[in-house]
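Hi U.,

Before I forget, here's the chain from the pilot set. I'm dumping it here mostly so it's searchable later in email.
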Amino acid sequence: MNLVSTREPAIALHLRELFQHRDLFFAWTERELRVRYKQSLLGGLWAILQPLVLMLLFALVFSVFIKIPTDGIPYPIFAYTALLPWMYFATAITFGTMSLVNNINLVTKIYFPREILPLASTAAALVDFVIASAVLVMLMLYYRIPFYPTLAWLPVLILLQTIFIAGLLFFTTAFIVFYRDTRFVIPLALQAWMYATPIIYPLSVVPARLLPFYMLNPMAGLIDSYRSIILRGSAPDPLALGLASFVAALTLVAGYAYFKHVDQVLPDVI
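Structure:
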């Protein structure tokens, strides 16, 4: 007689434990925001200033000195629509990657689901994203861009981007514990990644022969989808969004599996 195992799968155990510590997640997210802007002259306004300043610089350089095609869209809002989700991505990766290393005392003395730390950094960056969205609304009003029905896609894009960020952070957060010099690579990698994503320029300028390889970057499909639903009033390209969704989901599953695999030895290594 075969016995059917009723043992709960490991992933289900991890997720249930994470849900049980949801109060810690919210508390740590709040702490991330308070620490980030503590003794700051402008406080949360920095969330607006970073993409706004970059937008002004890009608008000056790429619409006055060097003409970049924008498919008929005014360059300031063309750039800001892409910079907004990009800053969400870059901020989450920058702060989240060091979340374990920067909290050595907590990680080594108290047990809790350690994935809460990078997830809280992601949530804090999402709050910045929401705050900075106010400027995008003002730009849309200024340039008389309608609020298209396709904005209903916005929660889907944000969710997909959050999934990708979380998966990537599970990799980088754990990896940097073993190889501390990785922290010097992250800013350089983000800078290179930005130029490999259609932020300064439209997707239409990418040569057709390179496009299949270019779209392996999930941020490319996501950024172009943000522009489509906000500025063009069209639904995201199904192929680009589908590929971005697949890579995001794969990154989350693989990243979380890696994080939990090395989780038991992290306190000793730190």
